[in-house]
Design brief:
This protein is α+β, with helices and mostly antiparallel strands. The chain folds into 2 domains: 2-134, no CATH class; 138-290, 3-Layer(aba) Sandwich (Aminopeptidase), CATH 3.40.630. It has 14 helices and 8 strands. The protein has helices spanning 2-11, 16-31, 33-47, 54-68, 72-93, 98-105, 107-119, 131-134, 181-194, 196-199, 217-220, 225-230, 247-251, 267-277, and strands at residues 138-141, 144-150, 155-156, 161-162, 167-172, 205-210, 234-241, 282-290. The strands form 2 sheets. Strands 1-2-5-6-8-7 form a 6-stranded mixed β-sheet. A two-stranded antiparallel ribbon has the order 3-4. A hairpin with a 4-residue loop joins strand 3 and strand 4. Helix 3 (33-47) packs antiparallel against helix 4. The protein is globular and about 60 Å long.
């Protein structure tokens, strides 16, 4: 597994400091009898198709990492990277091209940087997020990720009637760079082809529930890629709330500062800081489109 880890970190061009953190973590886990047993148990269960439990893996790895004095965030992301060796094999068994695996596990690096920006640790604090990656319910295709699920909403207008039992693919947006029209359209095209058997005779129904679809962005950050992304959708629901749990995505480790002290070095940060200082709420939107 060490050879796979080395190759993975090189292939995806992880920072040298992060590589060292993962190597140190791997060696520490392997040097301790109990933690080594836990690591190997979960790798074996997933590789053989046994009763792999992602939540149990995260809990046990966190327990072992804490016991032997290494960052649990590093240990959990290390385990996800090691497990991806067998995810790649499962893709191959199902005839899924390797590029889909490359796009999908590229998400690990996004979460790596998020964790380092927020907590200054090379690892991940959202290991739970990859549960459906390993059950092969979420795939990345180019810039965006797609989760197979039911629409679970009722929507009707003069042109379309959508029911809760209709199949859909829910879009997730990793923090991997610009969200340009060209990259989005390329991803939508790939998704329509990739999921054609899933939808059968039904049109490809894309949906998204995200803070990125917050309607107030039209005023807050006009002419941005985010607003352009919003225009891909029919946004039919939106909510605002007193507590907004996504501030860390915008302000990194400064997200808990008093509003007047939030950094304003980007248009997004400036817009969010000014809205918060004005006593206005933040929120999200839910939208769909059909291809």
């Amino acid at each position: 597994m060490l050879d796979f880890l080395v190759d993975f970190l090189d292939r995806f061009d992880y920072p040298q400091e992060a590589k060292k953190a993962f190597y140190d973590c791997y060696n520490a886990l392997m040097a301790d009898g109990a933690s080594k047993e836990v690591v190997n148990k979960h790798l074996e269960n997933y590789s053989l198709g046994n009763e792999y439990n992602h939540d149990s893996m995260l809990y046990q790895i966190k327990t072992e990492a804490t016991r032997i004095g290494i960052p649990w965030q590093t240990a959990q992301l290390l385990m996800v990277i090691l497990l991806s060796k067998y995810l790649k094999e499962k893709y191959k068994e199902k005839g899924i091209e390797e590029q889909v695996w490359v796009d999908t596990v590229g998400d690990f690096k996004c979460k790596l940087y998020e964790c380092h920006k927020v907590y200054h640790i090379w690892g991940s604090f959202v290991g739970w997020w990859w549960k459906d990656f390993f059950s092969m319910k979420i795939f990345a295709l180019g810039r965006l990720q797609y989760e197979m699920k039911l629409f679970d909403k009722e929507y009707k207008d003069e042109n379309v009637h959508l029911t809760p039992d209709m199949k859909a693919i829910s879009i997730h947006i990793p923090s991997s760079g610009p969200l340009t029209k060209e990259l989005r359209e390329d991803s939508y095209r790939r998704a329509k082809e990739f999921f054609k058997d899933y939808f059968g005779d039904q049109p490809t129904l894309f949906m998204c529930s995200s803070w990125l679809l917050f309607p107030a962005h039209e005023e807050m950050i006009p002419k941005s890629n985010i607003v352009d992304f919003m225009h891909d959708f029919n946004i039919f629901e939106s909510t605002e709330s007193e507590k907004f749990g996504e501030l860390w995505r915008i302000f990194d480790d400064k997200y808990s500062l008093p509003y007047e002290e939030l950094p304003r070095d980007t248009s997004m940060r400036r817009a969010y800081a000014e809205r918060l200082c004005a006593g206005k709420k933040l929120g999200k939107g839910i939208g769909f489109f059909i291809r």
